[in-house]
Amino acid sequence: MIAGDAAAWVAIFVTLGIAVVGWTHSNRASRDAAKAAVAAERSATAAEQSGNAADRTADALEKMGEQWGDWMSRAEKRDQRQWSRPSSGHDLPWPSPEDGGPWNGPMPVAAPSEPAVHWTVDRLKGRLHMLRNLGRATAYDVTLTSENAVRFDSPEPQSIAMGEAVEFRAIGSMQTGTPELTVRWRETPDGAWREWKRPLP
User: Fold this and answer.
1) Residue 137: closest CA among 103, 163, 100, 156
2) Distance in angstroms (rounded) separating the CA atoms of residues 163 and 183
3) Angstrom distance (rounded) from CA 178 to CA 201
4) What is the rounded distance in angstroms from the CA atom of residue 57 to the CA atom of residue 160?
5) SS3 of 23, please?
6) Angle ∠(174,178,181) on CA atoms, nearest 5
7) How much is the pTM?
8) Eight-class DSSP state of 88
């Protein structure tokens, strides 16, 4: 009887130990599951708050854009009213320059520039070049020379009107370098001599 009772008590203790261990693991798993649920809920809440903040920012930017557009529209209309002359003397008082208002007299017109000669040189082929008058005046007694060209073929002195051109040939050497063109002309048939120099392209 005593041996049987001992075995029974051992079996009971083993069963209780197994139950305690199982309960402990189950309780720990429940706590882990609860923590995971809380973390997931916090993440969802944070995501929702972040989305709400983004929506509020977008709404604020949209309102700012609308307010800016309204302000610009009002400013443009105000400027138009300020700088537009009224159609009659009863609409708006038009300030005079003495009162510090905008000028309501005739607009100043800049004096046109005096017609002048403007030269340009282009290389046509080989050593053949072209001198063209791109200015708005006629050049009289135009002469072409080159001091450092070993060979220089130029036309006779002549007048070159606006848009007209003459051709010439200039050949240099290794010793003299690139030929430099010298153009002399008069702005009037009896005017003073003018001079323009440029290395040939």
Assistant:
1) 163
2) 16
3) 8
4) 71
5) helix
6) 145
7) 0.46
8) S
Tell me the sheet residues that pair with 63.
none
Task: Please state, in angstroms and rounded to a whole number, the distance separating the CA atoms of residues 144 and 200.
Answer: 12
Extract the tokens encoding 93: 């008082």
Partners of residue 140 on adjacent β-strands: 186
Interval 86-131: pLDDT, tens: 444 444 454 555 555 555 566 666 666 778 999 999 999 999 999 9
Give residue for tokens 């430099």: 180
What CA–CA distance (Å, rounded) separates 83 from 94? 9
Which amino acid would we find at residue 109?
Answer: V
The residue count of the chain comes to 201
Contacts of 105 (CB under 8 A, 6+ apart): 97
For residue 146, count CB atoms less than 10 angstroms from its CB and return exposed for 0-12, middle for 13-18, buried for 19 or more. buried
What CA–CA distance (Å, rounded) separates 48 from 60?
18
**Reading across the β-sheet that carries 151-153, which strands appear in turn?**
119-125, 128-133, 165-171, 151-153
Summarised one tens digit per residue, pLDDT across range 40-66 is 677 767 666 766 666 777 677 667 766
